[in-house]
Design brief:
- The complex is a heterodimer of chains A (115) and B (115).
- By secondary structure, chain A is mainly beta.
- Chain A is 0% helix and 49% strand.
- In chain A, the strands form 2 sheets. In chain A, strands 2, 4, 5, 6, 9, 10 and 11 form a 7-stranded mixed β-sheet that branches.
- In chain B, β7 and β8 form a beta hairpin.
- In chain B, the strands form 2 sheets. In chain B, strands 2, 4, 5, 9, 10 and 11 form a 6-stranded mixed β-sheet that branches. Chain B has a 5-stranded antiparallel β-sheet with strand order 1-3-8-7-6, with no helix packed on it.
- By secondary structure, chain B is mainly β.
- Classes of the chains: A mainly beta (115), B mainly beta (115).
- Chains A and B meet through β4, β5 and β10 of A and β5, β9 and β10 of B.
Chain lengths: 115, 115
Amino acid sequence: DGGITQSPKYLFRKEGQNVTLSCEQNLNHDAMYWYRQDPGQGLRLIYYSQIVNDFQKGDIAEGYSVSREKKESFPLTVTSAQKNPTAFYLCASSIGGGAGTDTQYFGPGTRLTVL
Amino acid sequence: GENVEQHPSTLSVQEGDSAVIKCTYSDSASNYFPWYKQELGKRPQLIIDIRSNVGEKKDQRIAVTLNKTAKHFSLHITETQPEDSAVYFCAADSFSGGGADGLTFGKGTHLIIQP
């Protein structure tokens, strides 16, 4: 999991602003994921991508957008439409490319706070 | 979609005793069940996982059991140590079409090891 990086570590946003969280991996993984974690809660899936130029909505995609133009990068934009964006955001990647589920490795996370 | 329930939410045990955390899932198509350990402010780290063709898996002091008929799986930690104190999450995969859709997580168990 040392091959997955997220930036910034802390991010502060004013209400009404869009912000983009970075996720990069050098593991040559096909699949990448974004999760959101709220205090005392498990992780919830926002978006995932099994291959370059393709991505799918997860359980809580409303108010978020993603792109997957490069294999190693999967940025997440938190838009002003997201009503409660303050949370810890975690990116993950896995080998992918098959019909089964591979081990997911997580980045260090970005803590987003809306002021 | 998949639903994962995890119990208990908090577990306090004496150092040296065993700890057991239990999870149930709803989707009979799930076949991959990882367990993650998360320390405060850090990323989740995979500690053990099991696939549906196996009933039990062990790695030193950690073991996981799976009952596919009953749709539940458990984490067992023996000879607990202070460094085992953390939040533990169970998860199950979910499928639609030809590929995995990411993981559905339980809400976590805060394990406290009393000296």
